[in-house]
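Let us work through a complete example step by step.
Step 1: write down the sequence.
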Amino acid sequence: MRCRWRGPQGGVLVHRNNTLRLRPTFRGAAGSERGLVSFLALGFAVLFSGTAARLLGAAPSVHPTVEAFGGGCIPRHSRDSRFLARGRALTAPEPEKLTVGAVWATKPGSRPASKAGHPPPTRLRPEYNRLRRAFEVMRAAVTPVSSPRLPRPVRRSTRPDAAAFLAALAPLDVYLYAHSGRILFKRPLTTEERQHLADNCQSLDVHRHGQWIKDASGAFRQLNIFPFREQVQLVGANRVALAYLASRDDRIPRGNGALPKRDRQPPLIIYLEIALDIILANEQILREAFAAFKRCFVQLWNGKNESIEFDNGGMSTGRRWNGKYLSAYISKPSPVTGEVDCLHIEYRICSARAVRAVGIASIADLLAFDFRAFWQKHLVLRDVDIARLGRHSLNKRFGKRRQEPGPDDRRTGQVLWRAYAYDKSGSLCVQALIQNYGSGPFLKNIPIAHFLPSSGENALVS
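Step 2: predict the structure and record it as tokens.
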């Protein structure tokens, strides 16, 4: 049986007796040049491989069915041909097969097995792939089979990772305080009271019930705070202002001028910002610390809220009207001392229910609040063990409980980290990995004791 296929480079593939042979043709100017060059290159590969085999002491024997014309004979259906294409060294050939330099053929009369009587599949490869395989066979014939393969060098980054940088970071000073808050009152503030509060805080805004205000998104809405009458927003209030509001009587006199015996609706805190200022040495350390913080910070029970990055370089774990989220930035000086190289982190607690869940039910509770205990619970920094992540995934996939490290652990972990750790803004962070992949024993806690002052030190209201 003899069949012909016209090749893409001006050659003819001839199928005869279970072998494929590439016979160059010389038709046309371009085809003649390519065919002649390919013919000479393949012939040189065959001759050189046979000469190298003789120098190494091998005695090649030519089989009757082997035809070394043009590119030589290539197995039509052989599992070993796929190994040749991958560039792997061959082991000792089977008795019915034969190796002659760059030529490989099957035993006369043998036919590869086929399924259900169908002819075996034929894979037609371009001419340059034939040449590459011939050189691979030549290299396998010259190189001893017993020579071990040298391991590929693993390139490691000399830059310290984010976890090591945060663990070794030494801040100059740390401040804990309540930065901003909104409080609802039933009895409106007088002019003297407003002036006293304005003198003891950085900013004071007062809005009445039913007034049209502009919210954070830029839209106008009507303020509805019934049964309260005024909403007071304080920014940077000190202890003098908060102590005055805590002692202020908010009961409304009755028609006869008498006050009720008890206040059924005390002043309500509906919004609160608890801040942490970390003062660093210079701007370069500040930027590296902020990048490491964005990568390693984790907000517990964050759900599917994705992290957000702003134009000024700040970040947030997801704005919402109910609950709490974290925001951080380095573009402004410290609100307390005015120091420039400041990493400002603040937890924004929205709704009265979320404020009470933190442990602040009144203004007096805010004065006695333990800021250090709050940040010990909510400042969570974690790092990912890449090798442990890969081992965790492989054990989960194959149903094993392997604890010792394996050769594929780190590579699998790197693939999972790149696939699941990108957030909405295109940055790698642990928070995105937890949301997309999940948590597990591959997460390591980063110590935060050096980010918090000792008990009672620098714990300010403002």
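Step 3: interpret the result. The longest strand covers residues 173-185.
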